[in-house]
Specification:
Blueprint: H1 2-10, E1 20-25, E2 31-37, E3 41-47, E4 50-62, E5 67-68, E6 74-87, E7 96-108, E8 112-119, E9 122-129, E10 135-145, E11 151-154, E12 156-157, E13 169-172, E14 181-182, E15 186-190, E16 193-200, E17 209-211, E18 217-221, E19 226-231, E20 240-245, E21 250-252, E22 256-257, E23 260-266, H2 269-274, H3 277-280, E24 295-298, H4 318-330, E25 335-338, H5 358-368, E26 371-377, H6 378-383, H7 385-395, E27 399-403, H8 410-425, E28 429-432, H9 441-444, E29 448-451, H10 468-471, H11 478-481, E30 493-494, E31 508-509, H12 512-521, E32 526-529, H13 533-538, H14 540-547, E33 555-562, E34 566-573, E35 576-583, E36 588-593, E37 601-609, E38 620-628, E39 632-637, E40 642-649
Parallel strand pairs: 24-25, 24-32, 25-26, 26-27, 27-28, 28-29, 30-31
Antiparallel strand pairs: 1-2, 2-3, 3-4, 4-5, 4-10, 6-7, 7-8, 8-9, 9-22, 9-23, 10-18, 10-21, 11-13, 11-15, 12-14, 14-17, 15-16, 16-23, 17-18, 19-20, 33-34, 34-35, 35-40, 36-39, 37-38, 37-40
Helix pairs in contact: 4-5
Length: 650
């Protein structure tokens, strides 16, 4: 009955005699937000006086008949502006971020408020409820509306029980049905303007999905609060059946700041990649961070432990992983991961596989200057968190990779933070795999150094979906939410016409230079090297180039880019600049403006497509060129190709 009453309220049209309007603009006055208050709350957005978000109604339905945004009566308003700089502990994009915004806070009768914070590149809003009594959130409403002819890059889901690893489908918003729903982030394009929607400051609250509706309106969808989950019949160690769900989405027992709903709004595609809104709107850091050491990881699972040219049988055994450690040590790679198979079983994660002496591997790694990261399934970790992490710490492990969460209901979101907090106390890194997108936790707990929630290179083992087109879509959508564990570094590279799906010797689509460029283009403080060390030894020139590329950055400048077509990014770490460029299946020429460089002359070590890369994707060339801030550098990329440079002052 409550939902039916609410629907009637939302369908009221026209402003009542008591309607109130509020406007707040971005610091540069280009983005304008108009809020209408009558019995309900709605808002819209214009960029350069062009409507980009139409009347969008927002509210929260709580138990006990107390609703936020229905029967809304403004008690007071307050405004503030801020311009400062934020230092980032583990900078995946920029080590210092300018934070420049105007904020409007509307306080309502009933003890709640609604905040709008407007930046030059977007806006966030959130509800804040001062009520300290226990209550349930039955639903959160955002009827997100767009002008006619709005299109979307839509990460369509089949179930909210999901790894959130999707392709981005081209869809007209007006064509979507109620059965069409997506995970976040999602990109909308209207009148030449990009509107990317996601969320941040997500704590102890379910993650949001969006679903189709009538006309050009999208509506919210949330996983219900889980009352009971049991092991599934298939792969019971990692999959669950949610057998009992509540009729609400969250339980709240205190005053609550709800998540920020974030809209990155920019006419230039490159503005999506440069945006730091999801970080700026996240909760501030609460831990010491001087112990956190980002870096690269030699990864075993992608290549199925297939090493060769050795005098022992490769596989899940001590000798194989000492080989990985030796490779990492020789090439300055900070970590080796022990992925699935190192434990006694996938649910008995305090004991070792009898063929693997994990304590000896950790000791050997320490001797060689290489840290060990341990893979675990989420469910057994969640069942015995403190003992497991304290034990791993006592062994000398440096971090954990947590896998197969597949949920983002309230319990799961809270579990992410519980794991991050305990790991931080023990100075352990955390990489979330089988995960939803980054939603602000990495700022509060910077030991959370990466998230999957992306359809990455591991899919090469069983599908043909990871194309160069997909790869140059990710930076403009998924990466806007935060770092992504795509796991690059494939050395078996193929063109479109000779790609084959192979489980134990997977190959990538696109050229060798396309893969190398990912190490600069893709943000990942903990960045995998997915190929077998045996193959890397045969490709030492490539490894030598990749090994020089950092995983954290002081400054990012997007030189050029178009969603799904190409991207060129310059990043600085210390005094050295790095450039990565990637294209889709179209051969492409780009002119790069090097004015981001300082005064003086520079030399650039270049890794580019070879002259025969269109026929043999593994063909590449190395060269050295001279550049300066006056240089307009034309680069060529083959079909599915790439281009990289490491630039140092002469």
């Amino acid at each position: 009955m409550m939902k039916r009453i609410f629907f009637v309220l939302l369908t009221l049209v026209g402003l009542s005699a008591h309607a109130q309007q509020y406007e707040i603009n971005s610091p540069d006055d280009k983005l304008s937000i108009l809020i209408n208050i009558e019995d309900t709350i709605s808002w819209s957005a214009k960029l350069n006086n062009q409507l980009v978000i139409s009347e969008t109604k927002v509210a929260m339905i709580l138990s006990g008949g107390k609703n936020l945004g229905i029967g809304a009566k403004v008690k007071s308003e307050s405004r503030e502006s801020s311009k400062s700089y934020v230092s980032v502990a583990v900078p995946h994009k920029d080590s210092k971020i300018e934070e420049d915004y105007n904020q409007l806070t509307l306080s309502f009768k009933g003890g709640y408020s609604l905040l709008f914070r407007v930046f030059n590149d977007g806006v966030g809003y959130r509800f804040v409820d001062s009520n300290k009594k226990s209550r349930q959130v039955v639903d959160e409403v955002m009827n997100l509306s767009f002008p006619a002819n709005t299109t979307s890059k839509f990460p369509q889901e089949e179930s909210m029980y999901s790894h959130n690893e999707r392709q981005y489908l081209d869809k007209n918003v007006s064509d979507m049905q109620g059965s069409d729903f997506c995970s976040l982030p999602v990109l909308f394009q209207t009148g030449g303007v990009n509107v990317l929607f996601t969320e941040t400051a997500l704590h102890d609250y379910p993650g949001m999905f969006l679903k189709g509706s009538a006309g050009t309106t999208m509506k919210t969808q949330f996983p219900k609060y889980v009352l009971e989950a049991v092991p599934a019949k298939s792969n019971a160690d990692r999959n669950q059946d949610l057998v009992s769900l509540a009729d609400y989405i969250a339980q709240v027992s205190r005053a609550k700041e709800f998540p920020w709903r974030v809209f990155v709004i920019t006419p230039e595609d490159k503005g999506l990649v440069e945006s730091n809104l999801t970080y700026l709107l996240a909760e501030h850091t609460v831990i010491a961070t001087d112990w956190i050491k980002p870096g690269k990881v030699a990864w075993d699972w992608y290549n199925a432990n297939n090493i060769y040219g050795v005098d022992f049988k490769s596989g899940l055994n001590t000798a194989t992983y000492k080989y990985y450690i030796d490779f990492a040590s020789k090439n300055g790679i900070e970590y080796v991961i022990l992925d699935e198979g190192w434990t006694k079983s996938t649910t008995e994660i305090l004991g070792f596989n009898p063929d693997m002496d994990v304590a000896e591997l950790i000791r050997y790694g320490k001797e060689k200057g290489v840290g060990i990261i341990l893979w675990v399934l989420w469910k057994p970790l969640d069942d015995n968190l403190d003992e497991i992490l304290e034990t791993y710490k006592s062994w000398g492990a440096k971090g954990i990779k947590v896998d197969f969460m597949q949920r983002n209901d309230q319990y799961m979101v809270a579990s992410y933070e519980k794991i991050a907090k305990k790991a931080a106390e023990l100075e352990l890194l955390v990489d979330y795999h089988g995960a939803f997108k980054p939603s602000g936790l990495r700022r509060k707990y910077p030991n959370v150094v990466n998230y999957e929630g992306v359809q990455g290179s591991e899919n090469n083992k069983w599908s043909d979906l990871i194309t160069p087109d997909h790869n140059v879509t990710l930076p403009f959508i998924r990466m806007v939410a935060g770092p992504m564990d795509y796991t690059p570094g494939a050395m078996y590279n193929a063109n479109k016409d000779n790609y084959n799906i192979r489980w134990e010797r997977p190959m990538s689509q696109g050229t060798r230079a396309h893969q190398v460029a990912m190490y600069t283009v893709y943000e990942a403080p903990l960045q995998m090297m997915c190929e077998t060390p045996s193959k890397y030894y045969e490709e030492q020139e490539t490894v030598d180039f990749i090994a020089q590329i950092p995983t954290i950055w002081d400054e990012t400048v997007v030189l050029d880019g178009k969603v799904g077509d190409y991207i060129a990014v310059a990043r600085r770490r210390g005094d050295i600049w790095y450039i990565g460029a990637m294209t889709d299946w179209s051969e492409r020429s780009l002119e790069l403006d090097m004015s981001f460089l300082g005064d003086g002359n520079y030399k650039a070590e270049v890794f580019k497509d070879g002259v025969n890369a269109a026929r043999m994707a593994e063909d590449y060339a190395l060269e050295q060129i001279s550049v300066s801030s006056d240089t307009k550098l034309t680069i060529q990329m083959s079909s599915g190709g790439g281009w990289s440079a490491i630039i140092t002052k002469k």
